[in-house]
Amino acid sequence: MKTTYYLPIALVGASIFALSACGDDGGSDGGETTTYDMPVQEDYDDMAVAVGSLVSGGQSGEVRSMEDSVMLALGSTPFGLDLRGELVLGDRAGLSYSYTLECSDASGAEMACGGDAARAYVTLDWEGEVNLPRYQASVDRSGWWALTELQTETPRFDGEGRFVVQTSFSSMSGSNQRSFFLDYAARYDDIVWDREAKRPTQGSIHYSVIAEREASGTRAEARGEVDARFKVQASVVFTSEGNAMLVLDNQVSYWLNLETGSVERMQ
């Protein structure tokens, strides 16, 4: 049996995976080859802020959607949502979400999602606007997760996703405002969800991002001018302590707070 849930919700959260960070790429537009810049430290700090805000942002983000998915697969309605037959409707601070779930038992036989489900295949989409004190974004997200071991206290996630994000946020130092267009691809590898703690404790998300940093200044912003284009590989590795390590291009590392989405560069 196939169980379908649709969530017109509000709020955003995000993400990226493996491409080189510089040089000419095979991509083209009208026969022209796109040239990518080498990210500098400030670019890495900006990407860390952007990734952190997508992974975890209170009522939104990757972590909150993982919690929603486990609850729905096991037949519970997430906080703030209203279950009406196969529809879940709710409003959570800025995003529209849709979930479709196909559940099965331990043998792989299809069944209704609920307390006896052992596995679930989840397709999910977000779109909407985020407006936090230091982070604003318009986000469009699509993807899928395969959930296994639902009858244990530590279900597992694997899957893929895609994010397109137009964002403006304060730099890590708080002294500058940044604007980016970000195109993310995401891969989710063997993520372990702790049902009691309501957070991931193992596994990783791998993102590749193509970033366009918008030029500052009233005229440049009005014309949509691009100040720089670059690619970054990002890996988010979850830990049992309730945080995650974020590594960019295998050379710059940050601590990511899963409750707030804030990041701190590791020295």
Write up what this structure looks like.
The structure is a single chain. The chain has one domain. About 13% of the residues have low confidence. It is mostly beta strands and 267 residues long. A hairpin with a 6-residue loop joins β10 and β11. Strands 1, 6, 7, 8, 9, 10, 11, 12, 13, 14, 15 and 16 form a 12-stranded antiparallel beta sheet that branches. It has a two-stranded antiparallel ribbon with strand order 2-3. A two-stranded antiparallel ribbon has the order 4-5.
Q: How would you summarize what this structure contains?
A:
This protein has 267 residues and is mainly beta. It has three helices and 16 strands. The longest helix is centred in the first third of the chain and has 15 residues, at 41-55.
The assembly state of the depicted protein chains is: single chain
Give the termini distance in whole angstroms: 51 Å
Mean pLDDT: 83
Q: Domains counted in the coordinates: how many? A: 1
The radius of gyration over CA amounts to 19 Å
Q: How large is the count of helical segments?
A: 3
How does the major sheet shape up?
12 strands, antiparallel
How many β-strands, per DSSP?
16
Structural class: mainly beta
Shape: globular
Q: How helix-rich are the residues, as a percent range?
A: 10-25%
Q: Could you spell the SSE succession in H and E letters?
A: EEEHHEEEEEEEEEHEEEE
Low-confidence sequence ranges: 4-29, 217-224
Strand content: over 45%
